[in-house]
Structure formats: C-alpha cells, structure tokens
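Changelog note: in this version the structure field was regenerated for every chain. One regenerated record is shown below for reference.
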Amino acid sequence: MKRIKWTSEKLDLVSKYLNKGFNNEEIAEIMNDIDKEGIIYKASTIEAAIKFYDLTLGVPLKALVKSGRKIIWNEFLVEEVQELAHKGMTDNQIAKELSERHEVKIKGSQILNVRTRNNIQKRIIKPIKIEKENKAISYHEKRETNDIKIIKKNREKSQKLKKYNLKKGLKYTVKVKENGIKAIRTFRDLEFEYMTDYLLFFRDKNGLMKTFIRNNSLTKTFI
C-alpha cells in the first residue's frame, strides 16, 4: 500500500467535506473515488489526518456534530454556560439557548455535567440571613456579591477580547492559535460575513463557511 502524502489539495478536500458534516467513512469513500494514485483511504486514515493537521479548527459546531463527533466543551463553551447560569437560567434553559445559538442538540443533563466539572454555581437568590453582632450577615449574600464582582470583571475583559473592526465582503487573512497549542494556523482570502457574541463567520474560496472563536488573543485578522 502506498503511503499517503497529504498535499494542501488533499487536505482542502478533507476540510471541505468535514465542513459539510460528512463523517470519516464518507470522506474516505470520496477520496478513494477522486484519488487516482492507487492509494486506499480508510476512516482511520482520515481521522488521523484531521487530528494531526487540526482540521476541525474553524469548522462550525453544527457540522462537527453532524459528522459524528461529540461536542468538545472547550473554555469558550464553558464560559457561555457560566454566563447563562449566573443570569439564573436553569440547565434546560441553558441547553435550549446554546442549542439555538450553535444549531446543535444539547441536553440539560450535559449542562449539569459541565457545571459540575467546572464548579459553576447558579445564582443564589435571597438566602436566609444569620444575625451576628447585631448585623444581618449572610455567607451566601457575600458569596453572591463576590460572584457579581467577578462576573463584572470577566465581562469587561470579555468585551475587550471580543472587539473587532471587520467589514462584510472584505477579504482577510485569519491567524488562529488554539488554546493550549503553540502552533498558529493561517487561513488566507477569507471573506467576512458576520459575527455573533461568540463567533466570527467567514467564507472561503470554495464558498464554505468557516467559524472562529471571537477572541482577539486567539484569533487575529489582517487585510
């Protein structure tokens, strides 16, 4: 069996069909039909390439789920959960909000697991007070006050990180640093479409949508 040489053209093809929500078996079948070099592609081969070249970066969450991948609760998704939880929303309400925001099915039980793993507490409303030294003292009220201060500080920091000056229709070079990884990936000639509170949306030369985290410490844009 010939060894696969992953050229930019081949990687673009894998990325193209991954963006469309195709799973590894479907992508392998397509590559076998297209490639005339006598190379046999398998689902495991495609998965290895996706992981090694980090091809999931920039692929919408909706497409990744459609391709059979599980939701990866990175720090940005966790931050969304934390923000909604501190607004007093229930796990089911948070799940519904994130499902609509990312166009994927998220359950309340998943939100509960995320909150438990990351020690995210729901907003506490008016706990019972304890009298001490003629003053109404409440541990929970103090904790809630501190939580509100932390949330306010985090929101101010978040606003700075989310600040972008992008114009629809213009083409940009996007450089992305994935959290925890030193390597930087570069995407060229991406046409800016729009942005949400959490994501930047671009369209590549093939007309496929690319999404990136709206965080200017991780996602840099250049004309």
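Spot check on this record: The longest helix spans residues 139-161. The two ends are 43 Å apart (CA to CA).
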